[in-house]
Amino acid sequence: MALPAPLRRIPLAHRGYHHGPNCPENSRAAFRAAVDAGYGIEMDAQLSSDGQAMVFHDYDLGRLTHDSGPIRQRSAAELSKIILKGTQEGIPRLSEVLELVDWRVPLLIEIKDQDGIMGPDVGILEQAVARDLKHYEGPVAVMSFNPHAVAAFGDAAPDIARGLVTSAFSDQAWPLLSQATREHLREIPDFDVVGASFISHQASDLSNARVRELKRKGVPILCWTIHDPGEEIRARRIADNITFEGYAPKIPSP
Fold this sequence. Notes:
Blueprint lengths: L5 H4 L2 E3 L13 H10 L2 E8 L5 E3 L20 H5 L13 H8 L5 E5 L12 H10 L6 E5 L2 H10 L4 E6 L12 H8 L11 E5 L6 H8 L4 E6 L2 H7 L5 E4 L10
Parallel strand pairs: 1-2, 1-9, 2-4, 4-5, 5-6, 6-7, 7-8, 8-9
Antiparallel strand pairs: 2-3
Helix pairs in contact: 5-6
């Protein structure tokens, strides 16, 4: 399935258009702000203990809430009552965010790795995301660092565009992964195997030879995360679109 055109054109607000203590990442406030500004939205999906897709980046609750412990050990109902710092909002379900956005801007959903080491112990979260998206008709795509997760999502929702989140996979940034796994993922060998139609690559590594090869083949190249106009100019020499935070990029004309 091809990446929808708006996801190639409209800049994507990283975890929503979050700014200031009262508008944190992956919050309803950040998503409303993105919609109001006309930006697309990049967001993260994590799994609740009862198999629901929740919009939250971290595996632990501590950084973003006044609670602590793994998000995966709490039910969706419990998580909806855990307040995000700086707000009066609980952690949102993906279904709630889809209703809030209501097709108005493009969405890019990252499925966070649930295996722990980018392995094959996946499926429940991918099915939950597919279930929530079943009747969503707005421009949307789904991606993951874990190729197994991308493949599992493709099995659950073959008609929704899917892609790989990719990077240099340095030792420092990925200390829990084996050297063999880092080297494997760095070369993006699973692109065709998992039915990916795009990548979202680490902005500082866009000169990667494999990224350039995919670009020559016509594969849409997104990138993460851009923080200022200068970075954006450099990234767009290769990338078709950006995921950004901390500034307000211009939205190209259709």
